[in-house]
C-alpha cells in the first residue's frame, strides 16, 4: 500500500507566521513587516526587556537543575500568574476555586483547553468572534470542535456590533463553549465596554454557556488591571470559565513559549478535579512544560523590585504602541487617505484593522513590500519613524486604486 504521504499536496502557508517567511525572502531594502504580532522598538528590534535580562542573570547564578517540571508546572509560577490575572485579593484567588497549568505559550493553553473540554464531555460546539485570530478556527476544529461564529464588528469595523453579537450568543445551546478575547481583540483592537461585558456575563449565565477567555495581551492595552475589565462581566461568584494567558507579549518572551491555562470552577473541589483531567491532556500531548520562560516570569513576579522594573518595561511597550496609534492616525489624516481612522487612536493592544480587500492587501505586499495580515490587520508596534511615511503612501495608493 502506498504511503498516504505520496498523495499529499502542500498545505497553504500559515496566514500569519507564513508571512514572516515570505517577508524574510523579500529582497527589497525598504520592505515593512506589519504582520506577526511581536513588539518592535523604535530601532526595529524585538528587545529582551531589562527585567527579563536581570531575571536571566539571577537564574544563571542559581544552581539549577534540568529535571522535569510537574505535569502542570511549578506551583510558584502558577500562583503568581493567577494573582496577575485576577488580583491577589480577588474572590477567585481567595476562594481557591481556580487551578492553573503552565503551558507552552498561549496557543498551548488553548490547545490544552480544547483537549480538556472534549475529553471531559463538554459541548462539541465552540463560538468564535467573526473576525478572530486565524489560528482559533484551525486549532479548535483540528481538536474536534464544530465551529460557529458570532458577529463582532459593526459596519464601520471600528466598534462592536453589540446587538448582533449578543443576539448570536443568545442562540447558542446550553453548554456551548464561547471563545472571548479578554482584551486587545485580535485582529481589530476593538473591545467590548463594561456594559457589554455585563450583558455578555448575563447571557452566559442565562444560556449556561462556558466561556474560554483568550487573554494574551494583559497590560498591552491600557494597563494590567484596566485590561482585565472583562472580569467584571464574567467573574461572578460560582460562574465557571477558562482563561488562556500568554507571557509572549507582556514579557516579550516570544520564543520561550510560556503561557498558562486557568480553570475557574464553582468551588475548590471541582477545580481540583478539573486539574486532574488537565494533567491527562498535557501528559498525552507534550508530557510536561518547558522551564526557562516560566522561571523568568516566576522570578520577576515574585520579586518586588523586579516586578516594579517589569511594570516600567511593560508601560514602555504599551506607551510606544499608543504613540504609534496616534502617529498613524495623524499621518493618514494629514495625507487625506480616505477612511474613518480616528477611532484607531483609542483602540486597545497591538493590532488595528485597516479594512482592506484581499486585492488591496496583495498590492501592498507586491507593489510596496508592506506585509499585513488578512483584511489589513497591522501590528501597530511595527511602525518606526522611518517606515511610517512609506506605509502611508502605500495605503493611500491601494485605497485610492
Ligand atoms: C499574532 O496574532 O500575530 C500573534 O498572536 C502571533 C501568532 O502566533 O499568530
Q: How would you characterize this protein structure?
A:
- Helices cover 42% and strands 13% of the residues.
- The protein has a 7-stranded mixed beta sheet, with helices on both faces.
- The N and C termini lie far apart (53 Å).
- Helix 5 packs parallel to helix 6.
- It has 14 helices and 11 strands.
- The protein folds into 2 domains: 126 residues, Aspartate Aminotransferase, domain 1 (Alpha-Beta Complex); 235 residues, Aspartate Aminotransferase, domain 2 (3-Layer(aba) Sandwich), CATH 3.40.640.10.
- It is α/β, with parallel strands linked by helices and 401 residues long.
- The protein is globular.
- The model has no long low-confidence stretch (mean pLDDT 96).
- Helix 6 links the parallel strand 3 and strand 4.
- The structure holds (2S)-2-hydroxybutanedioic acid.
Q: According to CATH, what is the class of the largest domain?
A: Alpha Beta
Please tally the helical runs, counting DSSP H or I stretches of 4 or more residues: 14
Which class of secondary structure composition applies to the elements? alpha/beta
Shape: globular
Estimated radius of gyration: 21 Å
- Average pLDDT works out at 96
**CATH H-level superfamily title of the largest domain:** Type I PLP-dependent aspartate aminotransferase-like (Major domain)
Number of DSSP-assigned strands: 11
- What's the CATH architecture of the largest domain? 3-Layer(aba) Sandwich
Bound molecules: (2S)-2-hydroxybutanedioic acid
Strand order of the largest sheet: 2-8-7-6-5-3-4
Content of β-strand: 5-15%
